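pinned: reference chain
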Amino acid sequence: MTGSAGHLGEALVRVLRAGGYHVTGLDIRESPGTTVIGSVADPAVVSECVAGADVVLHAATLHKPHVGSHGKQAFVDANVTGTLTLLEASVAAGVRSFVFTSTTSTFGHALTPGPGEPAVWITEDVVPRPRNIYGVTKLAAEALCELVHAEHGLPVVVLRTSRFFPEGDDNDAVRAAYADANVKANEYLYRRVDVADVAQAHLLAMERAADIGFGTYIISATTPVTPDDLAALSDDAPAVVRRLFPDYAAEYERRGWRMFPSIGRVYVNARARADLGWSPRYDFRAVLDALTAGQDPRSPLAQAIGAKGYHDKPTGVYTS
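pinned: its structure tokens
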């Protein structure tokens, strides 16, 4: 398990160990889930970690929050070289399945509709157009995964995850206009997923990789909207949500919350549900029911992990 000190890494280590798996956690940071401290771009360290492993779960990465604090070469080193190093070591060690944690950020510019256009229906068939070095290097790493599968037969599943981190939104205007919990509740309509559901998708991927061979899947909460809603969603999102969830307005009003006036894209998880047998539990309906009952809408796993941050020193909203 790479990235064992991160949000998803800790979630996976917890779930795997609870399931009786022996987990070797690799990270550059110490943590309860980290057993080896080192870089995924270090061939000696990586070879030591994968020796005897049946499965590799690769979540270590430089993230979008690092774009402003790290140079492009650092992203290439961690996200591209690190992934290739791990793939080649996995082939040499006879690993039976490899799961790569990617991101919906790879879609980049494809996520933004033109003026007056309907919201974009984002499936795995949409061609990615990365907008920054994070997206570029994650997409390159995905291509390496497919190449190594084609050349060596290593079963690889790529999971493009949407937002599951607990930190505040990185958009200053959004943070100023909406309460943080309000933002996250809204996002379950189109671009957020609970870390417990992400962890479950990874476990299913590692179990089914051999049958899949190679596959790429969007991992996001199940959206309640359909393609028929896309024009209205872009023009008047609150009206769409009122139609789908007649009880939402009263709960939002009670909390002083607002729905976004417009939503420009929707992530679709249908392929992951079909191929992986994935059944995410946390969606907008579940969040709304929890809020109405006065409960925390996050999974117990998300609550246990909490916020970790992405930097060791003050660096914007993602500081640890």
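why pinned: The chain has one domain: 7-305. Residues 7-305 form a domain with the Rossmann fold fold (CATH 3.40.50.720).
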